[in-house]
Amino acid sequence: MANVTLSVPEELYKRMKKRSDVRWSEVARRAIAEQLERLEGPAGFRASSAELREMLANAGVKVEKVSMKKAVGQSGKMRRLEWKRVSSIRAN
Fold first, then answer.
1. Residue 6 and residue 12: Cα distance in Å, rounded?
2. Could you give the CA distance from residue 75 to residue 81 in angstroms, rounded to a whole number?
């Protein structure tokens, strides 16, 4: 496993030192993995907006009839479920 050096403000470091029960390297690892997942999306899935619209149209979904509020809610739900799935795979 590679090592990464992380700089934090002194005040934050002092607060971290008070919590010896927390594995801060694991916290950082998870935060980095989550950020990469948000940036890269699900592994192996890369599609343009046009490709996504076409896929949805082929599935019978009328994109223009989906409210933005509902779309945002479903997107968040999918991200949480995917993170749960990926986390369970890594745990095994």
1. 12
2. 10
CA 79 from centroid of its chain's CA atoms: 6
Please write the tens of the pLDDT for every residue from 20-56: 999 999 999 989 988 887 777 665 566 677 777 787 8
Read off the amino acid at residue 79. R
Q: How far apart are CA 48 and CA 26, in angstroms?
A: 33
The DSSP output letter for 34 is H
DSSP states of 8-22 as a string? --HHHHHHHHT-TTS
pLDDT the model gives residue 73: 80
**Which DSSP letter does residue 39 get?**
H
Query: How many angstroms from the chain centroid is the CA of residue 27?
Result: 14
